[in-house]
Structures
1.
Amino acid sequence: MAGSRLLKKAKGSYLLYSGLIIVVFFIVLAVFAPLIATHDPTAINFDEVFLPPSSVHFFGTDELGRDVFSRCVYGSRISLFVGFVAVGISLAIGVLLGLLAGYIGGITDLIIMRIVDIMLCFPSFFLILAVIAFLSPSVFNVMAIIGLTGWMGVTRLIRAEVLSVRTRDYITAARVQGVSGVKIMLKHILPNVMTPVFVTATLGIAGAILTESSLSFLGLGVQPPTPSWGNILTAGKDNIMFAWWLSMFPGLAIFITVMGYNLLGEGLRDVLDPKN
Amino acid sequence: MIRKLLVCLLVLTLFACGQKDSKNSGKEESFKKRDIKGAVTGDAFVESSLGDATGLIMNITSDSASHSVTSKIYNGLVEYDKDLNIVGDLARSWDITEGGKVIVFHLRKDVKWHDGKPFTAKDVEFTYKFMIDPKTPTSYDADFRLVKSFDVLDDYTVKVTYGEPYAPALISWSMSVLPSHLLEGQDVAKSPLLRKPVGTGPYKFLEWKAGESITLVANNDYFKGRPYLDRYIFRIIPDTATTFLELLNGAIDTMGLTPLQWTKQTDTNPRFTSQYDKYQYLSFGYSYIGYNLAKPMFADKRVRQALSYATPKEDIIKGIMFGLADVATGPFKPGTIWYNPNVKKYEYNVEKAKALLEEAGYKPGKDGIMAKDGKKLEFELMTNQGNTVRQSICEVMQKSWEKIGVKVNIRVLEWATFINEYINKQKFDAVVMGWNITNDPDMYDVWHSSNCGGQKLNFVCYKNSELDKLIIEGRKEFDPEKRKVFYHKAQEILAEDQPYTFLYVPQALVTISKRFHEVSPAPAGISYNQDDWWVKKEDQKYNYQQ
């Protein structure tokens, strides 16, 4: 019953659809990258440096003669990978702490929420930069750090939802029956608070992709030879006066992907919001 | 490194002090006019600098911005001429006796400080004492500490005695001479002269707007004749992209271009071609890949030779430097007498590289990576941030060495971290870096085994007793023809051992506004005769009344 109502609402949401199409497009691109790419993304060819876009090199070539199209295609793998894993990490931490804080309450709640407040005090990008400076930059460190610095919003969200759900009659009933706290949290509360989390997670992926690109742009993210949109852009920045294709295509890719996830998130929110 | 930098800067800029008087140096007369036909005075030269100067006494600053300014204000006792011969500057002539242990300088008598006081031997003595004073915050004291005694024979003669013959001694006296009458007994580090210098050079200090510009004005009493240009202006522009735009707008008169700007952004741009001429000459520096010889992996020279054979130097020069570099075979500049062209060259040869690795006991593993006793040939290649050429080289090397089964991980670090935490502490595998080449061939700082490790310049820790001997002997020989033998042999040793893979010597790519006449590159660079540069009345852009 509820499902069909949601479906009906979803049908009218252009936001949701356009977002979904973009997201699916880039996922397909990432999964089938080796089939789609026309060249080896790391093959250096000094006879073909800075070629403008053509039928051979759709997006032109870079300063080492590598095919920008193939690099962008492979770059989508990194972006999606980082996006999903980082958000996965922050979801895991956020949901766990949020449940504990909301359900147990009292001193546990107090401590967890103060930790959240403390973490929120740091401007997260600079925190990430500082941590990367200590560890060496790599895909895994970047994912872990983005995940570990992005869970606070989820915690707050879950806690608020849990606070309202835990006073419901069915929770009281479960508790009276002697069901253990862990079981109540996981089986009875969690499924009922996950809806807003989907929206946050979708928007979070957009944020994580953007952060990864920024880090790679600064040379602190994904390291060569692995292409990522951010580090393709870095090379583009130096040559923007005469090789516009180097900045334009990875830039567009970042822009469109981030917009896709944002549209999807907004669309989901509209559809899932019971007030609409 | 700082000393290297200084010496290099001296080379590139001190020549501004004009050099046509080498024939006249014996005469006592002071000529205020220069003898370029048709030249007129007026106009200004505008140069840009990425950073502001830290202070205007060269002896205690180490940043290139300060040195560019001070080289116009002060003189040393000697300098290099356009062909890199050592000639007199404040010294009229000199005698080297006792097998090179003693130098007697005869000073010019026609030199005045910018405040009108005469220059005498007292100033030289003060400068020497200042350089060796432990309280002086200078990085350039090493040469002067080898002086055993310093004597003032009369007002215009000084005698310097060394413990043993030291060939780089003479050029070490190109250090700026400071005014004793203003600095004697003062704390120089806090002296007002740091902000308002007084020198003997072709330009006098006019004003310094912090973070914005430093302006100098022609010295009418300059002992080699007043420079033709009225003013010399340094503008501080902290970003190369902005500097290039300023150049296109005609707001600055010179700039060092990147190979990319040189090939792609100048000839096709009428705003550039209508205003500027381009000059290209081999620069005083080389790029290399250095291996940490303290690591067992690099201890075997066959491994290093293999890595060198698998280095596509020609491709790097063609692709990354746009052909604007020469292949380097050792630490000397091709074309100089110190350079030995007949050393072992490592022309790109993957098969030979593989054979050498196998000879050294390496065998390809299941993953294709060469391994010996279970240890894979995998290491980190580091370089500093902000240098896109070096980063590109890292990527090329990663790909090239992959072909001989060597796995490389690239790490790019911020400059200060890179030097302090990794280079100085010897915590690196291999690095892509560059050195300046000094005119004096002394290799002691970078290659002598006593300079291994602990913030010293032989940071790869190369130790070779034969080379050590050559370096020490080379320092004692004054005759260039005899001296070069030591360094030619040294290059053969380095070529065989490959402690570095020498990559290339880049071209200096300089652009200078068309309005200046008398600009001509020479072995010493381009700015050696800057005091002779002049602008036709109708082309002059700037006006100034002294």
2.
Amino acid sequence: MNEIIEKSHFSEKVVKLTVKAPDIAKARRPGHFVIVRTGDNGERIPLTIADADTASGTITLVVQDIGASTHLICGLEAGESLTDVVGPLGRATDIRNVGTVVCCGGGVGVAPLLPIIKAMKEAGNRVISVLAARNKDLIILEDQVRQWSDEVIIMTDDGSAGTKGLVTDGVETVIRREHVDEVVTIGPAVMMKFVALLTKKYNVPTICSLNTIMVDGTGMCGACRVTVGGKMRFVCVDGPEFDAHQVDFDEMLMRMKAYN
Amino acid sequence: MKDNTDQKTSRDAAWRVELREAITARERTSIPRATMPMLDAAARVHNNEEVNRGLDAVQAVTEATRCLDCPDPQCVTGCPVGIDIPGFIKNIQRGDFAAAASVLRATSALPAVCGRVCPQEKQCESRCLYNKMKKPAVAIGWLERFAADTERLSGRRAPVEKAPRRNIKIAIAGSGPAGLACAGDMIKLGYDVTVFEALHEIGGVLKYGIPEFRLPNAVVDAELDSLRQLGVEFRKDCVIGRTLSYEDLLNEGFRAVFVASGAGLPRFMGIPGENLIGVMSSNEYLTRINLMGAGRGGMTPVCTGRRVAVVGGGNTAMDSVRTARRMGAERAMIVYRRSEAEMPARAEEVAHAKEEGVEFLTLCNPIEYRGDERGHVRSMIVQRMELGEPGPDGRRSPVAIPGATDEIEVDEVIVSVGVSPNPLIPDSIAGLEVSRRGTITVNDDMQSSIPAIFAGGDIVRGGATVILAMGDGRKAAAAIHHYLSTGM
């Protein structure tokens, strides 16, 4: 169970794992996440499912080495196993043909964005993807994103690939150029906050996918609670996707520092 | 086999008549109730060991002697699973502890657990004849624990009668008390039982919720092992309604499902500052510590405050506040909006908490939390309350005293004001009837609106005790057996 079938590196700190999990592969939809635990003393951490293959019974996880637990996961090799993988959790993305959709992802957020890009395209939408990272080496999954997008815009902080600038610059260019029906954004909380501020200005409906602190991931603990439209919501069972214009990102950013 | 059971349990068995006639009722009733040996309060707040150490054999036999072996024992009517209480107690008195354990096992899958966490003072012991004599009831819970512990420590478990295998598969969603009780009965009835658990540990609230100092994991694990030995299969990391749907279970050949998915979403009060760092649900606090080992070698972190307020007056609140003391809180407080008399927690837990230096701020209701510039909670504003008229549940409802508020310094707040049902399973099964509160609607046989789905425990009750959940599990097992035998 939970054996790592394949491991590859997107960059020094970003790893792609293909994990044997047949039931999850079969049940998952774009937007779902899993809770992963490594070692008998390990933490339970949420990771969004980047892809799945029902034929081989595997799911794909993209993990950035940013803390003790992700460091352990990134250190595992093919043939080794994750101690626990449970899911798929959360609500699946609402995929409809709305017209033109801008999908914007930052850093490893592009991994969970990919299945949404694919599903949006398959649903008949015109899909414009905006991928952003600090530099060229940190842009991941560009080829796969191109395969399912009508247009791809690359933004880097240092201009080493695509256009120099932030993800919001890329999104704004599109919104100013043509009518956009919906924006989907996945990435660091602070990035999603600024995407939401931008699209609110232009009145473009926007979906974000939140990755808060969680323990059980099934609604039991409430660690993942966020304020959306003035109401308390649990990311694990009510989300992870919410109307980005309603999310209190400042509170979420504060709560994410609980254990820093 | 039947004669053997009768010899163990019949009130008319020769040995039992002899025990009754051996000493007079006056002599029996003059024996003082046993006192539970306990860890010293000052020492125990520095460790996580079980507080109640259990009666020794001499104490247990003496306590069992107190039992009058009533012809119409009312204690049994106070037990949600109908344990033959005089039957096991009299076996203790005659020194046949193994027989006492097997009497318990006939009706309870988890006697060592119930002996520790049941609110006996509100159930069996409240009906004991001694109460009428203004004397303390027979310590039924402690005797139950004694018999179960003695059996476990002997390493010899009484053989369980099992019906021939039927080759009919039953799925149970959730491995807490309701699920385990149902599993225990279904496997004895000859069914193939698989228990699915969402977490990475089997045991549900017995593992993530109730702390080691009240219910050691080793006790739970021993009960799980005996279910495994009987043939119950456990599958962890599997969320019914997510990993496997109801249709998947049917496709895998399961003929009935018992949903015992337990308490779900923790409730918050909706007051300002409740999302500050350091304010969390008791579910989160206890899960981090009990299940994940936070602060005890686990990688999972947990906030540890010097001044900890626990909001609520139930057993979970007591578990949380006593855990906080053990995690190093200098000031650990219960903040409760009614008075101590209305507290739903067991009297024993309240007493233990007080011995451990927990402060009780009763008639206090939090109305706001205030934090520092980094978003960490630093104080709470409480509204002083007084008791008004009794509410629909008979408890006097608290009313705010205008203008009477206080600010209390805190650096951690644990909100323990109940839970709402978990929506995962109800949301995933089309046509499953749920109440307005989100609990699964069942008939008297624990059967839902879908005939092959039964449900019990907190997903039906909203929030209850271990023993009521177990009672549901047993009732459901009987009903599932009836349903599969008759198709009704």
